[in-house]
Design goal:
heterodimer, A: OB fold (Dihydrolipoamide Acetyltransferase, E2P), B: 762 residues, Helix Hairpins, Heat Shock Protein 90
């Protein structure tokens, strides 16, 4: 979305959006709650030998086996010991889990506070993030399930 | 797409399926008015609804077909070959448009003018070779009822089509009083017609039965998953409440209900084999026409049920097999006649349930497979060595056609007459845990047997551990396990450069270290501080040993698909949730073999050369499973051993004084000559080991204390007599008794056994 578009939106009534905030490393991330099927707390995913690095492992979810994506790995952070929280997300390719350090709270944010990715952001990060919301004391970086889908990540890595 | 259209699509497809069945039947019984009415109705319904939904193209085509069918129904035309061909084309045309609607939501802009023209042409009564049906019908009626005129009689049979069976019977009744004096022939003629009509009806109107419901398959899959989840939760509840006596009745109830629910959901996924068998008459008709062969299709056991997904999976192999049988099995009519056979060949499809498997048999009475040509071909393609080829028996040679690379279409068609893509048939069937067997007699015909497990969702597997993780190995590929105790770790494995090898009964077995495979760069060695295990696998003819850290229990696992990213790794065929709620990746033996570079075994090993078939009798005879029962050693012929199971003593039930085992839904007599069961009396928690053996057609369980080893046995000769001693063998230089399976007392006669079991359980 261009800055102009954002301004136009600002001019109109600012809608509210509900976003689930999660921590990974030092950044506060947000995922629109509409995309979240469930939050699984304190999971210990089973590693998959020889899987691409961004795969966080498998977890048992409602009778199915869910593939998870490690947000820390995508951010280039070292893997974290101990249990982690999982957001079960829905994308075009099916369900997958997003491994995060911890799930925080659901925030109501105003679309008026939205800004697209800054131009100075490194390209690889830019591909992952979907802009940010300006909260009072920090930024909430938005994640879009479609961009984190393991099938898509696998494809882009191969390319 | 709106619900109305979707409903219309499903209904039309069902109608067209019925029409297809009807049309192939019609060729055999062109006068069957009930059949004609049924076909007419399918097309009429489509036409009616399309007008309503606004599918103009479909309506126009259906209308053209309806006109032709109307003439047939009214007896103005007779359904001969060209007409049936035309109607089948109509069917394909209608199907194509329906498919288009399903995919795109509209009819597409193709033109059906050509097809419509054909259909209109077929309506011309003066076509050469078309006897005018009115006269034909009149002849038969005239015979039985000379008093009545042909004209009014014929329509009275035909137009009442929507209730054809009724129409037939009224026609019969009407004819009877008129022709009192010549009554016997009249009723005789009417009877078979009526019977056929009646036989056809339940199938035709089956979908209208009010007690059934159409359920989306994804919903069933979801139910299956949820039941799996419930089973796991139950296991955890049972563990958690084991200590609390107040909870015992509740958890036991939960246990039972869960088991029942799981079985019910499985049953809901079952579909009769007729769903795919019913496609075959058309295939046979089309193929015989294009090949100029003549064949009659006989089908049996269509009501046999299989899991929906398995049914889908065997559709292609079955089609392939039928095509093969017609193309290469059944000879051209003139050849058949010259050989003194009936000009018309017989292709038989048979399905039957056998224990936890469904057997699908495709047999023909054609030329059979010439084993000499198979041998020549295998040699030419370098699949076996010349010495080996000379040793192989007929049965073993036949198995060669399943080798990948044995055939690439045309070449083999000319040579062996069979074998086009047979490896594909086998791969597909084995993928779902099934087996393929072949049997052929030159000049007499060929029989192909597909043995399919009842459900796909559940696969028996051995759980192994490596890298502190559990992995599941499908039992189908597992041929044996080798235990290497700590003191032997240093010497057990031999190396050529960096290739680890194990001497298994005198032959070198290439080894793959599971931990090394999964963690490249890890040093491959046996840990001398603990036990090590080698799982000997046979993956499509690639034989190798997989070295694992430890073995857990065999388990029936529920296979869960993996996401595409993980499937691409190529080592795992799925994942599963174990009884203790752990996750395990399911290893794919074939991919592991390929990844590790294990080549197809040189066919000089009898076990591998005949893969897919029975082991060579001579070698198998010599090998025994050495067991110990209450301190005494005994041997069971390895070829007879199906499974070794460890069970709680409570699983052994009694019919009178006779111990029996209810294993995988089958009742097995338990042989307890060693007194193992008697020795465990009063110890309800005791575990017993049973060796499940094959004795001819039945299965027998032998209770033992331990299984010791597999060893080659030597014959013993009585001194001076030079007669081979029966029932004893020389194992590890000790004289050992061989368990006489034939001697195990039979259970009460077949029909009383289940009742007795029920009695024993209650």
């Amino acid at each position: 979305m261009s800055a102009k578009a954002a301004r136009i939106r600002k001019g109109k009534t600012a809608a509210m959006a509900e976003v689930c905030s999660v921590h990974a490393g030092a950044i506060l991330f947000g995922v629109p709650i509409a995309h979240i099927l469930e939050i699984v707390g304190s999971a210990r995913p089973q590693p998959v030998p020889l899987a691409p690095g961004f795969i966080g492992g498998l977890v048992h979810y409602r009778g199915d086996v869910l593939t998870t994506v490690s947000l820390r790995h995508l951010l280039g952070l070292s893997p974290r010991e101990g249990p982690q929280d999982i957001l079960v997300l829905e994308s075009a390719g099916g369900c997958f889990g997003l491994l995060v350090d911890s799930v925080s709270e659901v925030l109501s944010v105003s679309t008026a506070d939205y800004e697209p990715n800054p131009s100075i952001l490194d390209e690889r990060r830019g591909a992952l993030f979907a802009g940010s919301y300006k909260l009072k004391n920090q930024l909430l970086v938005m994640l879009e399930p479609e961009r984190l889908d393991p099938v898509r990540l696998g494809g882009s890595q191969a390319a | 797409m709106d619900d109305l259209t979707r409903e219309f699509l499903i209904e039309s497809q069902e109608g067209l399926d019925r029409m297809e069945r009807g049309l192939t039947e019609l060729e055999k019984r062109p006068e069957d008015t009930g059949l004609l009415a049924e076909i007419f109705r399918s097309v009429h319904t489509i036409k009616g609804t399309t007008g309503f939904l606004g599918f103009k193209r479909l309506e126009k085509l259906a209308h053209a077909g309806e006109n032709l069918l109307g003439l047939l129904r009214d007896g103005k035309l007779r359904a001969d070959g060209p007409i049936v061909t035309g109607l089948l084309k109509l069917l394909d045309g209608l199907r194509a448009i329906l498919k288009f609607i399903e995919a795109a939501g509209d009819e597409g802009d193709g033109s059906d003018a050509e097809l419509i023209r054909v259909l209109v042409e077929l309506q011309a009564p003066a076509r050469a070779g078309q006897p005018v049906s009115a006269a034909h019908g009149a002849k038969s009626v005239a015979k039985s009822a000379p008093a009545s005129t042909a004209g009014p009689m014929t329509p009275s049979v035909a137009p009442a089509s929507p209730a054809a069976a009724v129409a037939n019977s009224t026609a019969g009744a009407a004819a009877a009083p008129q022709s009192e004096k010549v009554a016997p022939p009249a009723t005789e003629e009417a009877a078979p017609l009526k019977a056929e009509g009646a036989k056809l009806r339940p199938q035709a109107v089956g979908s209208a039965a009010e007690s059934t419901l159409r359920v989306d398959i994804t919903l069933l899959n979801r139910m299956m998953n949820l039941v799996g989840e419930l089973v796991l939760t139950r296991n955890q509840v049972l563990q958690a409440t084991a200590a609390d006596p107040n909870m015992t009745p509740l958890s036991r109830r939960l246990d039972m209900v869960t088991a029942d629910l799981r079985e019910t959901v499985m049953k809901a996924r079952m579909q009769p084999v007729s769903n795919i068998f019913s496609k075959m008459p058309r295939l046979v008709r089309d193929l015989t026409q294009s090949l100029g062969h003549r064949a009659r299709l006989e089908m049996e056991g269509q009501e046999t049920e299989l899991d929906k997904s398995l049914l889908e999976a065997i559709k292609d192999p079955l089609t392939h097999a039928v095509r093969n049988a017609l193309d290469h099995g059944i000879e051209p009519p003139e050849v058949r006649v010259a050989q003194g056979k009936d000009a018309e060949g017989v292709l038989r499809l048979r399905a039957a349930q056998e224990g936890s498997h469904v057997l699908v048999e495709i047999s023909d009475d054609g030329a059979g497979i010439a084993v000499d040509k198979v041998r020549a071909k295998a040699l030419e393609r370098g699949l076996i060595s010349a010495e080996r080829a000379a040793q192989l028996g007929e049965r073993e040679l036949l198995q060669l056609i399943f080798l990948p690379g044995f055939s690439t279409a045309a070449q083999v068609t000319n040579v062996s007459g069979r074998g086009v893509g047979m490896d594909v048939v086998r791969t597909n069937v084995e993928k779902i845990g099934g087996k393929v067997e072949i049997d052929s007699r030159p000049g007499k015909g060929t029989t192909l047997r597909l043995r399919i497990p009842l459900t796909l969702a559940i696969v028996p597997a051995l759980i192994v551990r490596s890298l502190k993780q559990s992995f599941a190995l499908p039992q189908g590929a597992l041929s044996e396990l080798v235990h290497i105790p700590p003191e032997r770790t240093a010497t057990a494995i031999e190396w050529i450069e960096n290739a680890p090898l194990y001497r298994l009964r005198g032959r070198l077995l290439p080894l793959v270290f599971l931990d090394g495979l999964l963690m490249p760069g890890r040093e491959c060695r046996l840990d001398p501080s603990r036990d090590n295990f080698i799982a000997v696998l046979d993956a499509d003819g690639r034989r190798f040993g997989l070295v694992v850290e430890s073995l857990a229990d065999p388990e029936e696992i529920v296979v869960k698909p993996l996401s595409a990213v993980l499937k691409d790794i190529g080592l795992y065929s799925g994942a599963t949730v174990l009884g203790n709620a752990d996750l395990a990746l399911i290893l794919d033996p074939t991919s592991i073999a390929l990844k590790a570079g294990v080549a197809l075994d040189e066919a000089d090993d009898p076990d591998c050369a005949v893969e897919g078939g029975e082991e060579s009798q001579e070698t198998a005879r010599q090998e025994f499973l050495l067991v110990e029962a209450s301190g005494r050693r005994a041997a069971v012929q390895l070829a007879d051993v199906l499974r070794i199971e460890q069970l709680p003593l409570s699983r052994i039930e009694y019919i009178g004084y006779r111990p029996v085992l209810n294993f995988a839904g089958q009742l097995l007599p338990v042989e307890d000559a060693g007194g193992v069961l008697a020795g465990c009396e009063g110890k309800p928690d005791a575990q017993v080991v049973v060796v499940i053996c094959r004795d001819g057609g039945r299965q027998v369980a032998v209770a033992v204390s331990h299984v010791l080893d597999v060893a080659a046995g030597g014959d013993l000769f009585e001194a001076g007599a030079n007669l081979r001693a029966e029932s004893v063998t020389l194992l590890k230089d000790r004289v050992t008794g061989v368990v006489n399976l034939v001697g195990v007392e039979r259970l009460p006669a077949a029909e009383t056994a289940p009742a007795a079991l029920a009695a024993a359980q209650t």
